[in-house]
Amino acid sequence: MKLAVISDIHGNLVTLEAVLADMRGRGIDSIVCLGDVIATGPRPVECLETVKGLACPVVLGNTDERFISGGKGFGKAGGKEVHMLEKMFEWTSSKLSSSHLKFMETFKPTLSIDLPGGSSLLCYHGSPRSNRELITSSTSEEKMHEIFSGEENHQLYAGGHSHAQMLRTHGSSVIFNPGSVGLPFVKLSDGRAVNIPRGEYAVVEADTNGVRIEFCRVNVDVKKIMDDGLSSGLPYSDVWASDWGTPEGITKTDKKTNNGM
Predict the structure, then answer these.
(1) Cα angle 178-187-125, degrees, rounded to a multiple of 5
(2) CA nearest 89: which of 228, 195, 235?
(3) pLDDT one-digit tens code per residue, 122-142
(4) Is the CB of residue 151 less than 8 Å from the CB of residue 174?
(5) What is the CATH number of the domain that holds 76?
């Protein structure tokens, strides 16, 4: 069995299509999505309809929850960045029909998937207890015990939210993050954050011999991403487009930060 795990599409149809094309050459049997399908990207409806067409289970991400609850919640302090996010949120909300929202209401806080060989995978967005909680490579073991208390009956755990690929152990279990399909980013050594033109996902291969996890990265033409954003009507699309960088400018240290490993 080959299970593709995707997360954090964020309305980026260009990279979503690139990732799905890459999957077709890998013999994928099924897909699970860990949420944050549409927010702050130029093609929210197209991404949502593409995910619906996959007929795969979907986890409720923190931004997905904002749309179906009608809330905003990007911050209380105000400022240019919060204003920009709110305008993007409002624009995206205006594109959603009642059927779109009804589909999003089927997204689950957590999903348990049985794997061949008797193991199981628990899927969530941020953590098993909150789609807003971050789990990273530096999360302390003490914190990990607190987060996974009561959920120790799975051998494998998958969550998104951080937009960084990660693999770590917790006790006898493996915890991983497939990265972001539509908005992978790195923090550079000078403190800047840059979106990288690629789509990230993971493949879980399970059989009677055990479980293997492969991290995948699909390079995408940065101009194609930027042009799609600029032509979409997304508020502040110029800012969104300017946040994309190129892999050539990233040092080995910065790549290690992005991996989260």
Answers:
(1) 30
(2) 235
(3) 999 999 999 999 999 999 999
(4) no
(5) 3.60.21.10
Residue found under tokens 């994928």? 28
**CB within 8 Å of 30: residues ≥ 6 apart:** 1, 2, 3, 4, 56
d(CA 67, CA 6): 20
Give the tens place of pLDDT for each residue, 83-93: 899 999 999 99
| Number of domains the chain is built from | 1
For 74, residues 6+ apart whose C-beta sits below 8 A from its C-beta are 82, 85, 86, 89
Residue 26 has pLDDT above 50, yes or no: yes
Ramachandran angles phi, psi of 227, nearest 5°: -65, -40
Token pair of 45, please?
A: 């409806």
pTM for this prediction? 0.91
Tokens matching residue 107: 């997204």
Strands 193-195 and 185-187: antiparallel
Instruction: Name the residue range of residue 148's domain.
Output: 2-259
List the single range of 63-77, 112-126, 227-241 with lowest mean pLDDT. Answer: 63-77
Q: Which residues of 1-13 are buried (b: 16+ CB within 10 A; e: fewer)?
A: ebbbbbbbbbbbb
Give the least confident one: 156-170, 185-199, 212-226: 185-199
